[in-house]
Structure formats: structure tokens, C-alpha cells
Amino acid sequence: MGGEAASGDEEKVSLKAFLKDSDNLLILGHQNADPDAVCSMVAFARLYKKINPDGTPQLVADDISRLSNQVLEVFESTLKVTAAPESNHDFLVLLDTNSWFQLGPAMQQIAKNPDKTLVIDHHERNPEIDQIAVHQIIHCDKSSTCEIMVKIYSDLGIQIDANTANLLLTGMIFDTRRFLYAGKETLSIAIDLIEAGADYNKCLRSLQTKPDRSERIARLKAAGRVNVHLIGDWIIATSRINAFEASACRGLIELGADVAIVGGSPSKKVVRFSSRSTRDFFEKTGISLGSDVMKPLGQIIDGEGGGHANAAGANGTMNLEKALVHSIELIKVAVEGKHSTDEESSS
Ligand SMILES: [Mn+2]
Predict the structure, then answer these.
(1) Which of 34, 120, 167, 187 has a Cα at 20 to 30 A from 312?
(2) What is the spatial distance between Cα 137 and Cα 98, in angstroms, rounded to a whole number?
């Protein structure tokens, strides 16, 4: 531990020694802690208890994500993550982050003693980390902090129990976006965790979320009222719903639309639009929903519109139907304009 010059053996010896010597260990994750942060925090607390059974670990993060809470509930972790430390600590472990910014303002005050701080992380090395922690286990080539935790367990010769294996695998699944970004080593560590007792399907299920009932109803109603416009090779879907317009757009894209535009009037004098497009649509047509569609639409509804290329919206007070029709016109003109330029340039 403590810089790249230290040999692996030294690292192990000093990490064990630090944990043995610390009666109160503070384990800190980043702000709005995601499943990789939370699962590696719990795994580290358990590792600490194996090395120092009398020690007291505290798990703290400035807020944890809804999904992280769900994961902890599924695997019935008895270790809770709190918003602030309840007592003093003699050693600090920072997980899944290596910057002040990610810690959040409240936690920055806590990480004040670099000699007594260890950081374990897989993010791009932040230069300011040397001021936060003297002891560093940073591996940018690893998929997740949970993957690094598996290595630390094995380096220290401590067996991973089935429940910890579940948490670590869940953190890895989350950070790799279900192994979309994973190489041979990550996959082989995942198999090690399954052999240690992790239930792959349960891990996957622990990360699944279902939108609220009202949101699902809105999405289904928007799908039922859809109009399909074929412009060139593109499929443009428009619909009307008075709530969850953005979610309805995402639903229509999932159903197969290249562009989805959903308008609603949740009350008198309120007209709202939301829109989404696929990356492919923007890359091939160059049409930005923000500047090319929602901005001019904002004027028609006597309000304002804008946003990003693939996700944009508009708010106003009138002309819902007129604006919906006009949005199709705008896309048509833009696609056809683009088409004729293509032909000119290729001739
Ligand atoms: Mn991570």
C-alpha cells in the first residue's frame, strides 16, 4: 500500500496492519452512491470485521441512490449506510471515488487526514487524490470497485461468503452495464463470484426497476394514441398525454420509433412537449431536436423550447394540435433538405 513503488507483499502487510490497528473505521462512498459504491462499502466493512472482529465500521455517503437501496434490501444487508458519521474514526477508507467533488460538500470536511486515508477506486486518476489519501489502491483498468474488492479479498487470503459475493457481482453487473464493457478478466472474476455462491439471476433482478403504476399507464395510453409518420426511411411517432411525456417518448422509442414527440396539456393554458430521438437519427440526419424542432415549436405554443440533439422539450400556453402538426413539418423539411444536399454532394 502507499504508492506504486510498494510491492504487492508490502501492500498486503500494511493494509492488514492498518485495519488491525483501527478500532473505528469510517468507510466513505461518493455522493448519491451507486450500487458499485454501496456494494464495495459493505464488502470492505465485512473484510475489516474478519481482520479486526472487535472493530466498529461505519458506512457513510451523502445520499445513496434508489437503486442502491433496492440492492441492499434484496440482499438483506444488516450494514446500513448513513448520511453522516455518528462517532469519531481513526482510519478512513474512500471507495469508488478519488475526487473532492464526487464526495459532496458535507463529506469533504471529513477526509482531512491523508496519512490515515486509503482510497480504493477504478476511475481515472485524479491529481488531487495525493492530497486526500496517502494510501492508494487505484486500478483504472478494472471494471468496478467491486472487482478490485475481489482482488483485495484474495490478496489477503480471506474467503468471500455467498452474500458478499452477491453484492460484489451486483456492483460489477451495474458498472459494466450488464457486462457490455467487460473483458476476459472481469468475466472470469464474475465466475469466481458465482462459484463463491453468488446467484447471477438474483443479482440481475436486484438491479431491475419498474416505473410507478401511473407512469406505466401514461406510457401505454400514449402508445394507444400514437400517430406514425413515415419520412424517408425514418419512423416518427407522435402522441398526446397529459403526464409523463418524457417517459412516453422513451417508451415509443423502445417500441421502434426513430423520433418520438409527445404533447400534453395538463391544465388550461399549459402546453408541454417532450421529444426523443435515436442516436442513429441524429448522426445520419444532423437534425437536433433542441434547436431544429423544439425551439421553433416553442414560439408556436407561445413559450420556449430547446434542449439537446436527442432529447428536448418545449413549454407554452396554446396551440397544442397546431404545434404537433408543425413538428412533423419541421422534421420533413429538414430530412428532405438534408437528402437533397446529400444528392448534390455525391453527384
Ligand atoms: Mn464504480
Answers:
(1) 34
(2) 10
Strands 259-267 and 135-138: unpaired
Query: What sign does the dihedral 129-135-140-143 (CA atoms) show?
Result: negative
- Rounded Cα distance, 41 and 24, in Å: 15
> Could you give the domains of the chain?
8-206 (3.90.1640.10), 214-346 (3.10.310.40)
Q: How far is the CA of 215 from the centre of ligand 1 (A)?
A: 29
What letter does residue 301 receive in the DSSP assignment?
T
Q: Name the pTM for this structure.
A: 0.73
Q: Could you give the CA distance from residue 144 to residue 227 in angstroms, rounded to a whole number?
A: 43
Please tell me the distance between residue 77's alpha carbon and the centre of ligand 1 in angstroms: 19
| Of 145-159, 230-244, 258-272, 326-340, the least confident | 326-340
97 CA from centroid of ligand 1 (Å): 8
Q: How high is the pLDDT of residue 150?
A: 98
CA dihedral 8, 11, 17, 21 (to 10 degrees): -160
Average pLDDT, integer, range 241-266: 96
- CA–centroid distance, residue 116 to ligand 1 (Å): 22
